[in-house]
Design brief:
Blueprint lengths: L15 H15 L11 E5 L2 E10 L5 E2 L2 E2 H14 L4 E12 L4 H18 L2 E10 L7 E10 L16 E4 L5 H10 L16 H10 L5 E3 L5 H13 L2 E5 L7 H10 L13 E4 L1 H12 L8 E7 L6 E4 L5 E3 L13
Helix pairs in contact: 2-3, 5-8
Protein name: Hydrogenase expression/formation protein HypE
Family: Belongs to the HypE family.
Pfam families: AIRS, AIRS_C
């Protein structure tokens, strides 16, 4: 924080700068045991029921991209955050911040996409708000969504439950969302079309929990990508994580695009993938169930939690060496969600 006395783009990137902002500014100001969990959603007890509660804001540019748009993203992003606590989303709120001069047809297109995404995810948009800012003080449309859902009995998903020996599974090919955004934003053409993986993960999580409620932690690797998600879990659980670089499913078009752009696919955002830490005795059954679901057909075991190097993520390379997969400082691709 001493090196960045003013907010920079990296503070919104889901990496080390974001973590410092939360740790040194927001957490001390707000306090509270629930906030201290710092999960994708907060697990709370209200009236005897265990609820997951989450909020997120969306400032993606451009508003529409291959595979979706800001409307789909605003619904699926919050639904997925709730799913990472094991909850099935029930209700969402929706706040629109519109820039003066944006076409009403654009707003309608976004709203229609949100409604369709909510119906597909089985969630109701129950309340909302609209504000307008002067021309030049926004970027067309910003959206905030908050959501609540019930956590099933016996489900306790949090990084503190990770233990050495847990198997690390990723639900499918990584890097699609971030590269899809960049290809449109920069007017880049690649040999194969790259489409965002934006999708609701609630059904996949239910399929996994039907095998066993004893999953240890789930995380959707959005900002900061797979690398950020693994580092957050390693730090919170005080365990090491070892992954096999060659087993991480990176589709060839994404690998090629990242090579051209100088990006590391481990740090590129996803919007329809999850990473799971599963007790070893349940890993095979959970993996089979994931592969039987449309959103998990490319699920792959990529590594394990270990006692060595607690808090660090290490990748075994194809050459037989190892490298540290560090927490990113900011974000390779800003404004992607």
């Amino acid at each position: 924080m001493r090196d960045h006395p003013r907010v920079v783009m990296g503070h919104g990137g889901g990496g080390a700068l974001s973590a410092e902002l939360v740790r040194h500014v927001f957490a001390p100001a707000f306090g509270g045991e629930v906030l201290a969990q710092l999960g994708d959603s907060a697990a709370i007890t209200l009236g005897g029921a265990r609820l997951a509660f989450s909020t997120d804001s969306y400032v993606v540019r451009p508003l529409f991209f291959p595979g979706g748009g800001i409307g789909d993203l605003a619904v699926n992003g919050t639904v997925n955050d709730l799913a990472m606590s094991g909850a099935r989303a029930a209700y969402l709120s929706c706040g629109f911040i519109l820039e003066e001069g944006v076409e009403v047809a654009t707003v309608a297109r976004v709203a229609e996409a949100m409604g369709a995404a909510a119906r597909a995810a089985g969630v109701e948009i129950a309340t909302g708000d609209t504000k307008v800012v002067e021309a030049g003080h926004g970027d067309g449309v910003y959206i905030n969504t908050a959501g609540i859902g019930l956590i099933p009995q016996g489900v306790d998903l949090r990084p503190q439950r990770v233990v050495p020996g847990d198997v690390v599974i990723v639900s499918g090919e990584i890097g699609l969302h971030g590269v899809a955004i960049m290809s449109v934003r920069e007017g880049l053409g690649f040999e194969a079309d790259i489409v965002s993986d934006c999708a609701p993960l609630g059904g996949l999580v239910e399929t996994m929990l039907a095998v066993t409620p004893d999953l240890h932690v789930l995380r959707d690797p959005t900002r900061g990508g797979l690398a950020a998600a693994l580092n957050e879990i390693a730090a919170a659980s005080d365990t090491g994580v070892v992954i096999s670089e060659g087993r991480v499913p990176v589709p060839e078009p994404v690998a090629n695009a990242c090579a051209i752009l100088g990006l590391d696919p481990f740090y590129v955002a996803n919007e329809g993938k999850l990473v799971a830490f599963v007790p070893r005795e349940h890993a095979d059954a959970v993996l089979d169930a994931m592969r039987a679901h449309p959103l998990g057909r490319h699920a792959t075991v990529i590594g394990e939690a270990v006692e060595a190097h607690p808090g660090l993520v290490v990748a075994r390379t194809g050459l037989g060496g190892t490298r540290v997969v560090d927490l990113p400082i900011g974000e390779q691709l800003p404004r992607i969600c």
